[in-house]
Structures are given as structure tokens and as C-alpha cells.
């Protein structure tokens, strides 16, 4: 435990930005979007994620600075995953953290932890769900997520991933719904002002640890996720399709890293 | 406050033998048509099987009535039926926001008279007829009549179309008064491979059957899409429209996937005078909540586990919970009759969850149709407002002041809640706050007067004593 207390707080670490922005969204949701103030559930998620991270780190790297990543994953779970059961919240947090340590290839974890945790919990427990409509479509929120998202992405150098994903997805949705089907433009704008989609674009798909290392590979990868999300949305009527598309596309990262060789990302 | 309510709920059970004494059951039913331009829909969905029952508040001439609904497939005759409107009335009364009333006991009355009464009431809330014109040349319209039926008082055609202009012309040539911009709204549905369920009234049948109003139409189909097309109805409407959706699913609560679903304000204490206009109160509350949520939220008004394993089908119940007949009428076909005689249980077996959603939509704030998602949450929710009536009768004992102060505090809180929930002009209700302040002041005055009276009595007593002593002494002298 001593080493936990001795972490030098490095404020240049972009994860601090992520933690503060995600916390802000949680507070915004509770106070402005009428989310249920289920503090116990949030505490259960945080507690389980941190304990799981400490335990896993103790048996592996012993680098406790990774607790910041656990906080980010816990915040993502609080923001996206809904459940009425505390046991499910614990399962989600433990799967999320454990996936980082257990599902690895070439010294890199394969899945975005929160993304994997969310999908696995939904499929395994059957009593958790995604609530894509919960963010509403406020332009103010769109603006805030956009600005804070860019602030983090500048520091981690993953703007290419976000831009490639969102522009491909928008182009496909625009062609399908506005040009082909004939819906007015605000049909698509409504979809792209959804808090869930923006949070995914700026804070989930861009996780530097699970995106391909090379910029070219990341763009190919993002376009692939956008294509998959588009098919899932329009042909299989899956809500929050990008979240499902990411978990399906994650294993391709390893393949892309083999083709496009580039230096691996490090937080500090 | 919670404790008080709990106590009040328990008391009728503790004093069952006195039940006959408290029969002042008050039921305030707000009149129908609380919300103008409203429609009601029942959607029952199990896996991909969907049953939709539609009730429109059409108030014009019956012969002008027509309805066009995009449907995912060609419906067969057995997939379409007409149901009685009473199912909507039942579901509305069962799931509507409710007023729960409690009556304070008189603090000065003996305990056996201690009766609290809970009563529940609910406000109810409330779109060219001739045979199909002979289509001269169907190919010109690029419209195919997939099926034609006469069901009950309705003539129904199922159309598929190649392009929206043709469909628009077909509808116009067949006597439908469709809005000018209809073609642009029809196009996306054609491109989504949807068919059109087109209804008008068969006047002969309607006369023969003798119905004054149009009965709801029910359709059923298989579809991957869990949605309700609302955009077509907005083609000619600038203003907003209210829609109440009664949702029946097997697993759990339903929410909208592309709009924010939020819970209605609930469990608030409201002043006693609201009893005369609970309907008006709820309309004002909804108007205010709608504005506060930027006009683009969907409100959950009720969510309840109606599964046969859940014995509490409502709490409190404004009316009897839906029976198997009601559920079957509403399209909940997956429940089967329970032939076992289990007292207090359901007359059906199966999992059912009911969600009531209230949407106020308009063109600018609802650019997409409503898409739904069924969650695994079986958490119950109800729109419930609590009213506590002050004790009636003579209150004349030491506890009176404490009770008056308690009522005064409660009324202050109720007025604050009312100001927060509605836009009502509260200056009209100043008397409500004054009533108990006046009683408190009177009580204090009387007490002071009593104190003064006591002082005077003591002085008088002393004086009288002194006088009598003196008289006694002087009489002794004379003796």
C-alpha cells in the first residue's frame, strides 16, 4: 500500500483531465438531466473498480499509478451503464478491470475496459442496460462534450480517431437518412447531438491504450467501427450501436498493429 | 412526514371494527379531455410480436375521418380488429397520476375515534367516406393495393408504394384530405419498405352498428423495430400534440431510445384546496415540467410489475388492476388464464410489465419517430400526490396549539411545493395560510386572557379574604 501513497501526482497526465471532465458529466446528469441520484451505486462501482485494480496490479506490474485508469473506467460505467442491482454493479466493475489484465495480446489489452465491461455485463447478467436517450439532445451539452473531448485528445494525440469515426458515421447516416430516405436534416442532427454518441466519440473510442498504435491504422480502424455501427443501426435496429461496434472491432487492433508498426502509447 | 402517512395507512386496519364509521370516501374524478389534441395508444410487445391499439380524439364529422399509419408488413384480415374504447378508459384510470388523501385525526378526540382515511382518485386525460374511388390506372400512381378489408365500421386498404408523389396523388384522388406537405413525410416510410394502413369509415356499417363515436383499431405484426411513427401526424400540425402510450412488455420497463425519458414529479404534498381541481393541477404541473425539460423529454407517468407473481398490482389502487380480459383486449396474449383459486392473486399467469409514457411532441422538438427500448428494470413507479386534510370538529384541549402549528407548517410547505410544481397564482389562496395562523393567534389570546383572568381572580380572592378578615375582626370588636 505504501507505494500507492507515494504516487507523485503528475498533473500533465491527461488522465486527470479525463477524470475531471467525466466527473463533471456525471454531476451534470444528476443535477440537470434528472438522473437518479443513486450515490450508493456509484460508490459500489468506484469501490469495486479500485479494489479490483489494486488486487490485479499487486499480482502484476505493481505500478499503482494505473488507479487513475480504474477511476476513468468506473466513471464511464457510472455514465453509461444502468442497473438496479448492486451485485450487477460489482460484476460490471470487476469484469471491466479484470479484462485489462486477463484479455491481452502482445503486451497490450485488447478491449476498451469500460466498453467490454458494459457489453459483458449486459450479456451475462441480463439485468443491466444502456440508456442511449438519457442525455437528451442539448446543444449546450454537445458543445461542452466537444470542447472537453478535444482538450483531452490534443494531449493524447487521438483526434484522428474521433474525427475519422464521427465524420464517416455522419456521412453514412446523412446519405442513408437525408439523401436516400428523404428525412429532413434535423433528423440526422438529432442523432448526432446525442450525449451518448458524443461521449463515445470523444471519451471511449479514443482510449490510447486500445486504439492501434499507428495513425493510419487508427483511421482505418475508426472507419471500420463507423461502418459497423451504421449497419447495426439501420439494418439490425440496435440502439447505441457504436458501443457494440467497438467491442466487435477491438480484436482487429492487434492485427492492425502487426501491419502498421509504430511505437506503443505510454501515458507519461 | 413518511411516518405520518404510514400511520394513517395502518389505522384503518387496526380499527377495522370501526370501519363503518369512516365512510366519507371522497373521489374526485377530473373530467375527461384534460389535454387537448391528445391520442392514446396501447402497445403490447413480446419479442418481435407487436400489437398496437390506436384511439384518436377525432371530433369532426365521421364521414371525413381518415387515418394513414405506416406499418412494417402487409397485414392480414385476422391481424386487424376493432376494440371497445373502454379498455383505454380502464388503463387510464388505473395508471393515471393519482391523488391520495389523508385525514388528520382530531387531536382532542378520544383514541377510538382516531380514524384516518385514505382515498385515491385519478384524473383522466384526454383524428371522405364513400367506397374507394375506382383507381383508373394503378400504374400511374405506382401504388399497389395489397389488401382490402371491411372490419367493423371501417374500410381498410393496405398500400405499398414506389414513390411518395404517386401515393400522395392516390390518396388525394381517393378523397383523402391530406396536408400539402404530406409527400415529403411519406417518402422516408416508402424508402424504409413500410406499407400503409389506410382507414376510412364505412358509413353503412357505422349506421347499422349504431356507434356514435369511432372505436379504436387494433393491428398486429412482427417487427424488429420497436417504434411508433409520429412524424406523419405532424405534417399538418404546427402546434404540439399529446400522446399517452400504455406499454405492455414481458421483461421490464420501456423507455425511449432516442429521447430522454424522465420520471414525472411525484410523492409531493399538495394543499387541500387542490381537491376541487386535481385535473387542473395535473395539467399545470405537466405544462410546467414540459417547459422545464426543454420540451423534448418523454415523461414516464407509471411503471408497474403486473406479473402474476407480484401480488401488489398498485399501491394505492385508484381502480381495479387490469384483469386477463383487459390484458387480452390490450394485446397481451402471452398471459394465460389462471384456473387456480388463489385469493387475492391475478386471474392470469405470466410476466407483464406496464409502462405509461406521456409525450408532448411537435415538429421542431421531435424530429424523429419514437423508438423504444425494453429494459430489464422491474422497478415500480407512480405519479402520486398526497393531500392531508386538517381535522374537523371542535378542537378544544391543550394539544390544540401544537396541532395548529403543525398544520400551519404543513400548509406552508404545501404552498411551496405547489409554487414549485405549477404556475398557479397563489395569491388567490392566501386564506389557506391565514386560516391556521388566525387559530393560533386566537388560541394565544385566549390563553393570555385566561392568564389575566387568573391574576384578577387571585387579586380578587386576596381582597375578599382581606375584607372578610377585616369584617370578622370588626365584628369581634362589636361583640
Write a concise keyword list for the protein shown above:
heterodimer, A: 268 residues, mainly alpha, two-stranded antiparallel ribbon, disordered N terminus, B: 479 residues, alpha+beta, nine-stranded mixed sheet, 22 strands, 30% helix
The amount of helix of chain B comes to: 25-40%
Largest sheet of chain A: 2 strands, antiparallel
**What structural class should be given to the helix and strand makeup of chain A?**
mainly alpha
* SS strand fraction of chain A: under 5%
| Chain-averaged pLDDT of chain B | 82
- The helix tally of chain B amounts to 10
- Please tally the helical runs of chain A, counting DSSP H or I stretches of 4 or more residues: 13
Question: What's the main sheet of chain B like?
Answer: 9 strands, mixed
Instruction: State mean pLDDT of chain A (0 to 100 scale).
Output: 88
Q: Largest chain interface and its two residue counts?
A: A-B, 32 and 33 residues
Trace the largest sheet of chain A across and list its strands: 1-4
In N-to-C order, the SSE pattern of chain A is: HHHHEHEEHEHHHHHHH
Low-confidence stretches of chain B: 1-33, 112-117, 124-136
Describe this structure in words.
The complex is a heterodimer of chains A (268) and B (479). Chain A has 13 helices and four strands. Chain A has two domains: 2-133, no CATH class; 137-259, no CATH class. Chain A starts with a helix and ends in a 9-residue tail after the last helix. The radius of gyration of chain A is 18 Å and the shape is globular. Chain A has a two-stranded antiparallel sheet with strand order 1-4. Chain A has helices at residues 2-5, 14-32, 39-59, 67-80, 86-102, 113-125, 139-156, 159-180, 185-192, 195-204, 215-235, 241-249, 252-259; strands at residues 81-83, 104-105, 108-109, 128-130. With 268 residues, chain A is mainly alpha-helical. Chain B has two domains: 2-389, no CATH class; 400-478. Chain B has helices at residues 2-14, 86-95, 138-141, 164-173, 182-191, 203-209, 278-292, 324-329, 400-421, 430-478; strands at 38-46, 49-55, 66-71, 80-82, 98-103, 119-121, 143-151, 154-161, 195-201, 217-222, 227-228, 241-249, 254-256, 260-263, 268-269, 297-305, 336-337, 348-349, 353-361, 370-374, 381-382, 384-389. In chain B, the strands form five sheets. In chain B, strands 1, 2, 4, 10, 12, 14, 16, 19 and 21 form a nine-stranded mixed sheet that branches. A four-stranded antiparallel sheet of chain B has the order 3-9-8-7. A four-stranded mixed sheet of chain B has the order 6-5-22-15. In chain B, a hairpin with a 2-residue loop joins strand 7 and strand 8 (154-161). In chain B, helix 4 crosses helix 5 (182-191) and helix 9 (400-421) packs antiparallel against helix 10 (430-478). At the A-B interface, helix 9 of A face helix 5 and strand 14 of B.
